[in-house]
Structure formats: structure tokens, C-alpha cells
Amino acid sequence: MAGSHIAQIEKIDFDGMPAWQIEASSGARAVVAERGATLISWQPEPGVDVIDGYQTAEELINAASSRSRIQVPWVGRIQLGRYNFDGETYQLPFDDKNDALNGLVADLDFSMVNASNTLTLGCDFEGAEGYPFTFNIEVTFSLESGAENEEHLSVTINARNTSEADIPLAVGWHPYVKLPNNKSISNSSLEIPARTKILVDGDLIPRAGEAAYAGVKAPVEVDYIGATKIDASFRGLIPDDDGVVVTKIRDLSGQSMISLTQEPADAPVVHVFTADGLPRDSRASIALEPLSHVPDAFNRADSKASVRLKPGMNRQLTATLTYSA
Q: Which residues touch 255 (CB under 8 Å, ≥6 apart)?
């Protein structure tokens, strides 16, 4: 990536709630709310918004549809909101599907840590019902321009265990991306560089043990999304020549493209959701979610060791969205 000078970072108002606007010298802009360190919008070109983010403070406060949600300390669903860690059983509050969904930081107010060349928002988590552990989280947003006029938005999530004992912790991000001038994602193609699809039960919980992992032809390609519905996690991700994993959605008419780049060591899972049944703008966008673990990892024997984070240690994930026309 070629660098891009950040022309300005300033605090602004988003429907009565504090937020920050990042503006690059290229004209690209992003808006991030302090509530949940939530990306509200990203315009890689003036007037072209490719993030299907919150439109009102009410949506943001309710974390409706998890738009751009930072997923910490777990990703996806925890079955029945219940898990066991170091011999103790914990019960989280759960949603209307009886699962705990997408972590606990969406309703926290972050504060500015740095606003020089990048924007970093931070927060101390002091424990909650069903998760009596503490951690510090910082989320950094940056804008860059590429050598071929593509624009990049990078998000780095860094969580540090501030407890005196080991804690279970996973990290992820839940952005919805949309292609300019497309009212739905139907007239687009999708490419996921993965060898394995995570199989789930009727409640979208991964099956037990190895039964959760099904080999698929790599890369997973949907030449025309049309009415295809996807709400699935993939692993066995295949790095490109640069050592990173790139998931792509392409506009079949205008040929604009948005890609998600993630490091397979930090984020070995990608979840794709075609936004079916959202209360607003169903299938207007697609969620491309980089994840450190598969959903329900707190309850999986094959994830028990990897979700464990020792005192003072960090878990980090960097993801980059790239827009090219």
C-alpha cells in the first residue's frame, strides 16, 4: 500500500452522539462513533459511501443488526449464553434466539487515545454479568491510498488482559459493505479463499467436534449472488502471494470491487452474511467479518487453548477494506 497523508481528524456530532471524522488528503472520509468504537461510514470517494452503517443514534444505541460492531470478548454466538472456563460455569444474558451474540463492547463509550495520523479509541472493560473478567481494548482506524488509486480503510483491534488470571477472549469485526449504485447485493459476485466451511445446526451453532468442518472447493466462488443466502463461517483460509487472505465482492455491472484483507495468523476465520431479514435494508449489503475464532469457541474443545489469554497478554486483529472502481 502507498501511504496517504491524513489531512484532518476532528471530533464531530453523529445524531447527538460523539464521533470522529477522519479525512485523508485524497478526499476519502470515515466517521467513527465513540459508542462501541463503531464505524458509521466510509467514503473512499466523496459522496460514495460503501459502509452500510447506522443512520441514527437510536440504531447505534440498540446495536441494531450489529452494524460495524467490534466483537470482543467473543465472536458470533455462544449457545444459550452459557460456557465453562477453568471449572466455573458462566451464564451471559442472551438474545431472543437464546444465544449471546457478538460480544460486550457495543454499548460501551470509548474515548480518544490518539488522533494524529490515525484515530485510536480505547476503553477499559470492568466485567459484566456472565463475564467477570477485565480487559483493555483499543481500536485504531486509518485511511490509505494505493498505487493504483484504490482506497484502504484499516481497523486494528487490540485487547489486553488486565485481570490477574487467564481469561477467555476472542476478537472480530462485523462491517456491512455495499457497492455504489446497487440497491441490493444480487448483481455481484463473491470470492472467499477458503478450503473449509463451518457446518452449523438449526440455531446457527457450529456442530460438535470435527463434524463442524466440511471441505469445500477452494476458492469458494459465487459468480452471481442473485437470491443466494449465506450466513456461514469459513476457515482453512488460503493466503495470496503477499501472505494475506483476501475476500472479494465485485459489482457485475459497474466493476467496482470491495475486498477484505486479513492476516491468517490473527484472523483464521471469515464469516459472510448476506444480510437477509435485517429490519432495515435487508440484502442491501453483505457482512464480511474477520474473526480470531469460530462462533461458540468458548464451548469448543478444539478452541479451549486458543481462546485463553494470559494476564498482561494481547490479542490483536487487523483487517483492511479496499475499494477500487
A: 325
Question: In this predicted model, what pLDDT tens digit does every residue of 224-254 receive, in sequence order?
Answer: 999 999 999 999 999 999 999 999 999 998 7
pLDDT in tens, 182-207: 999 999 999 999 999 999 999 899 99
- Does the pTM surpass 0.85? The reply is yes
- C-alpha dihedral, 266 to 189 to 175 to 274, nearest 10°: -110
Q: Measuring CA to CA, which residue among 156, 185, 318, 198 is closest to residue 248?
A: 185
Q: Closest Cα partner for 214 from 201, 196, 232?
A: 196
Measure the CA–CA gap between 163 and 119, rounded to whole angstroms.
26
Q: Who's near 47: CB < 8 A, 6+ residues apart?
A: none
Other Cβ atoms closer than 10 A to 221: 12
Q: How far apart are CA 163 and CA 135, in angstroms?
A: 7
In order of 1, 108, 211, 308, the CA distances from 321 in angstroms are 12, 24, 32, 28
For residues 180-211, b (16+ Cβ closer than 10 Å) or e, as one string? Answer: bebebbeebbbbbbbbbbbebeeebbbeeeee
Contact 303, 210 (CB under 8 A): no
- H-helix segments, the chain: 57-62, 304-307
Q: What are phi and psi of 114, to 5 degrees?
A: -150, 140
